[in-house]
Amino acid sequence: RAVCGEYQKAHNTTLENVIKSEFSGDTQDGHLTLLAIAQNSAKYFATQLHKSMRFLGTNDKKLRRIIIHRCEKDMVQIKEEYEKEFGKTLVEDITGDTSG
């Protein structure tokens, strides 16, 4: 986060804007993903969990993969970010989306 802030001060633009102007396609997506994780990994994974349940039909594979890989690292922070970003608890959304 500090690096992003210092970059913006020094260059009067964000790293995200630079990535969007200099890259495209999968390379751009990869760089933007790395930047999002570096800035706030809990928020990034909360958003990915929400996206896995957002549309008709849950992306069970993505949902399981994130929960399994993050459970011992930062799941508490992810749950906090999820509730802050989406106004419901992660448990409520998972239960509502996967029941039945």
In summary, what is this structure?
The protein is mostly helical and 100 residues long. The chain has helices at residues 2-11, 15-22, 25-54, 60-70, 75-86, 90-98.
Describe this structure in words.
This protein is mainly alpha-helical. It contains six helices and no strands. Helix 3 packs across helix 4 and helix 3 packs across helix 5 (75-86). The longest helix is centred in the middle third of the chain and has 30 residues, at 25-54. It is elongated and about 50 Å long. The model has no long low-confidence stretch (mean pLDDT 92).
Spell out the key features of this protein.
100 residues; mainly alpha; 6 helices; 80% helix; elongated
Q: Low-confidence parts lasting 5 or more residues at pLDDT below 50?
A: none
Average pLDDT:
92
Helix fraction, binned, reads: over 70%
Number of strands: 0
Number of helices, where a helix is a run of at least 4 consecutive DSSP H or I residues:
6
* Beta-strand proportion: under 5%
What oligomerization state is this entry in? single chain
